[in-house]
Structures are given as C-alpha cells and as structure tokens.
C-alpha cells in the first residue's frame, strides 16, 4: 500500500512545514511536556496563531472564513501538526468546529453560515455540546429536555449533564424534545442557545483530581433557543 501523498498535496505540505519551522521554538516537544497551566496557556496562544495563519477549518468555503481546500489537504495538515506535536486547535474545537461548524456548513441556512461560521473559526464563539442527560446518556431517544414553541421563540425546560468544557462556552447546541407525542427517536430538534440566555445556568462538576472539565447545564424558564434550521422536528 502506497501511503505517500500525491504531487498536488506536496505544496501545501511544504507550506505547513515552513510555518511550523518559523513559528515553533527550536527543540519544541509539545504541550504534553508542560504542566497543566502551561499547556492551557499554550493552547490559547497556539489556537490564535492557527487562526491568524488560516489553519482552522481549512476545508470550509472561503466566504465563511475557510480556505476552500480539499479533504486531502486536511489530512496533510493533521499529519504535519501531529509530527510537530502540536494540536489542530483547542479542546472545544471538537464541538465548535467539528460538530456544530461542519453541521452548519452542510445543513445551515445562508444566514446562519454567515453569522456563526466566521466567529467559530476566529474563536470568538465557543460552542459546547448539550446531548447527555441524567437518564439519557448515549441513548438520545430517552432525552427529556422540553422545547415548547411559543411564537417566535422556543422555550427550553430541563437539564443536560457531562457537558465538556461547559464553562468555556459562549453557546450550547442541544437536542431537545419538541413533540412528546412522537416516537421516542423522533420529535427531536437541534437547537442553538447562547450561554448568557436568562434562565440558563452552567455548574461545574469537580472530579476527584479537583479539575472541572465537565458541567451540568440547567434550563429554567425563560430559556430561549434559536432553531438550527426550521421549526420541524426530526
């Protein structure tokens, strides 16, 4: 099996290597060799550097802040970053870029793409995932977060748990039940909700090590969310 990159990928590979050589200090061994505080500080600075040089969400269209590159280019980028022992972004980019951002690229309206995607790439908006509940972990058909349509708003009422990096988020995307009469795996809508919405409270969950990486999120009236596409349930 030939695992070498085709010629068309070589120029991008050379670009990334030149960027890394110019940006990283000699002998850099990666954030894994740092203590937690140093690694956190590095991740913030490094994420900003990646954004400023166009290495966040490189496959997204240029009109939304990406570079319009190919999936192969994304693979090249991931390999070269791994070779240099640096991350492709911050931990929250898993939910902001990979989960919400890519969903909006594929399914979002034009207005949503122009509103959210550039701010996700810049890091001005950090979106966290609101799926798990106290009695609905991976079994999302059992989720109970209520979402009632009230005119131009959707009112949320309920709780999420195990929200990774919840205290870092500026927004949370949630799955909520908008039709309680539908089959349990239906009647569910994907919603976007700013963290600073009145009635929304994020509480950190302290682990035995004293760290707070996971959170509970409580939605009490009035908590309003914006629909990701339409009012229709899935």
Give an overview in words.
It contains 5 helices and 8 strands. It has 234 residues and is α+β, with helices and mostly antiparallel strands. It has 2 domains: 7-91, Orthogonal Bundle (Butyryl-Coa Dehydrogenase, subunit A, domain 1); 127-227, Butyryl-CoA Dehydrogenase, subunit A, domain 2. A hairpin with an 8-residue loop joins strand 6 and strand 7 (214-219). The longest helix has 17 residues, at 7-23. It is globular.
Short précis:
The chain is α+β, with helices and mostly antiparallel strands and 234 residues long.
Question: Secondary structure elements and their pairing?
Answer:
Blueprint: H1 7-23, H2 36-52, H3 71-83, H4 93-107, H5 110-122, E1 127-130, E2 146-150, E3 153-164, E4 171-177, E5 188-194, E6 200-205, E7 214-219, E8 224-227
Parallel strand pairs: 1-4
Antiparallel strand pairs: 2-3, 3-7, 3-8, 4-5, 5-8, 6-7
Helix pairs in contact: 1-3, 4-5
